[in-house]
Design brief:
By secondary structure, this protein is α+β, with helices and mostly antiparallel strands. It contains 5 helices and 12 strands. Strands 1-2-3-7-6-5-4 form a 7-stranded mixed beta sheet, sandwiched between helices. Strands 11-10-9-8-12 form a 5-stranded antiparallel beta sheet. The longest helix is centred in the last third of the chain and has 22 residues. The protein is globular.
Length: 249
């Protein structure tokens, strides 16, 4: 059972845990339903990218939420989830940082990614699906050559093998706690503080990719709405609520 009292649906292989859970949500699956797969054949990241999902090594799972929050707040669930993931892993792995808008890093390498999707309803979301890919027991050779200098795993960082089921239980527990905090106080307060104390982009030069625009700026922090606060070329501070941040090399 999940912390919400629903079931974990486990599969050896799926095209995508989020796609499967979307179909279940439309059919009436309850709050807190979790879908986990040993491998994904078409795992997805942001902007239609594929999430590399080798069998039996990592955690690939999606969680169904049915929140009563305004539509404009739904994108903040990705940051809520990455903060919960940080909290769940903080004693297992040192040096964890959060990269806006949806990634967990370790030593500057990508450890996990989060994709949140929603089906809009009348004034609020009918449901939200949070998909999480966490690199756990994969070795560097398990990743495609083009990713090996960009990613890491818990096993690579901690020099040990993790029990995937226990790790999933820990992450789900923290996700339940953090979503309740989000419902009661919003992203501001304790969640925003956690992110900003462990913010990968803080005071670094970046380029925001937003549609066809590339905007150079200096990143500072996350604000209460989940926006990235940065100083742009004219010296003014701007909050970016969408886009992708890339470090200037």
């Amino acid at each position: 059972m999940t912390p919400w009292g629903s079931h974990v649906l486990s599969f050896a292989s799926l095209d995508s845990t989020s796609r499967y859970l979307w179909r279940q949500a439309e059919a009436g699956a309850p709050l807190g339903t979790v879908v986990v797969a040993d491998e994904q054949l078409s795992g997805r990241g942001r902007r239609g990218r594929q999430w590399h999902s080798p069998a039996g090594l990592n955690l690939y799972f999606s969680v169904l939420l049915r929140p009563s929050v305004k539509l404009e707040k739904v994108p903040q669930f990705a940051l809520v989830a990455v903060a919960a993931l940080w909290q769940a892993l903080r004693t297992e792995c040192s040096g964890l940082t959060i990269k806006w808008p949806n990634d967990l890093f370790c030593r500057g390498l990508k450890l996990a990614g989060i994709l949140s999707e929603m089906k809009p309803g009348a004034g609020s979301a009918e449901f939200v699906i949070i998909g999480i890919g966490l690199n756990v027991n994969a070795g560097i050779i398990d990743f495609p050559l083009e990713l090996r200098e960009q990613v890491t795993s818990l096993s690579c960082e901690c020099q040990k093998t993790f029990v995937l089921g226990l790790l999933l239980e820990s992450v789900l527990k923290e996700l339940a706690v953090f979503t309740e905090i989000f419902y009661s106080e919003g992203l501001g307060g304790s969640i925003c503080d956690l992110i900003n104390h462990n913010f990968y982009l803080a005071e670094r030069d970046i380029v925001i990719q937003s549609g066809a625009q590339s905007i150079p700026c200096r990143a500072h922090s996350i604000d209460d709405s989940g926006g990235l606060v940065a100083t742009v070329a004219d010296g003014s501070k701007v909050s970016f609520n969408a886009g992708e941040a890339q470090l200037v090399k």
